[in-house]
Amino acid sequence: MIMSETFSLTSDAFEEADVEHYLIANSVPISTPSLQADLQRYCDDSDYVTLYKETELSSLIDMSPYVVKVHQDHPLLHQYIHNAEANTHWSGILLTVTKDISFKSLLNHLRQRLLVSFSQGRKGILHFANPAVANYFFSETIEQTDTNTWLGPIKQVCWYGPNHSPNQGLWCKIHNVQAALETPSSDEDPTSSLQWIMTASQAFAFKLQNIDKALTDYFAQMSLSVTDRQQWLAYREHFQDAETLGFTQFENIYHYLSLCEKKPSHGQQDDNYRIETKTKRLIEQVDIQTVQSLQEDQKIPHIAQLLEKETSYVNG
Question: Each residue of 248-284: pLDDT tens digit?
Fold first, then answer.
């Protein structure tokens, strides 16, 4: 995945020749009126298609994303960029395919990807047009081949990093190196029973999303503003360390995180009260098996007592 504060969607994403770009405009009830108004203002009726049409989700057509073919100067694309960066109204993702992939073929592929099986055969809707979902589903999987296989003929996906994630405030894009090998048929039936089975790698990505939600709650409780990507990832590592040590309750995990933080020295501002990204992790200072063997309410006192003996740490 590529992310950068200087990545420009209207230039960098459109620098390649012989490709087409499609905006998947995500619709949720609160933003549907503004999305429909923008579609009518900036597009002809023939320019966009309702994604849920002619699928098992046709009864939910009022909540369907729209697929719109766009170009670099398309006004709807500029509205999308404004919405993303201002965190207002409707959102979405931008897809890139080679010119030999027809609009109909792309639609059929996306419609085949609307439903997903997970957790012992349960079935759900995969809201991949929502940046908060795309951010994890496309970029946080351990196995890149899982993402490439799901994307099929789609060559590139771009989105704006959602709030409460390491990518917040950054334009992100991911490339599918296998796209050139895919030749979807426009005759595929999008209403067939074929659906994606979520892989272990993709399930892990959504676990990271849940960790980030918990971290957001912790930052709010501690009045911390963590916007640096590397620092956020450091907190995520410590959160996972807490789980490795056997912590299950958020209250105790949050206490563990506070023990990991570096207190400000005398004369420093409070905004220096953060986890350091390059120092030794707390889990490396303890005997993991010993901590794992303790009852959960015994773990924090045990670790805190150890830290009192370490000159490089202070008890939180």
Answer: 999 999 999 999 986 444 444 444 456 766 567 899 9
238-259: string of b/e by CB count within 10 Å (b at 16+)? bbebbeebebeeeebbbbbbbb
The whole model's pTM is what?
0.86
Per-residue pLDDT tens digits for 113-133: 999 998 777 899 999 999 999
User: Hey, where are the domains in the chain?
Assistant: 2-198, 222-308
Structure tokens at 93: 């993702």
- Calpha distance 246→248 (Å, rounded): 6
Q: Are 147 and 176 in contact (CB under 8 A)?
A: yes
Total residues found in the chain within this entry: 316
Question: In Å, how far from its chain's centre is CA 169?
Answer: 12
Classify residue 50 by burial, with Cβ atoms within 10 Å: 0-12, 13-18, 19+: middle
Q: Binning pLDDT at 50, 70 and 90, where does residue 172 land?
A: very high
| H or E segment and range at residue 172 | strand 171-175
Q: Which two tokens stand for residue 153?
A: 């003929």
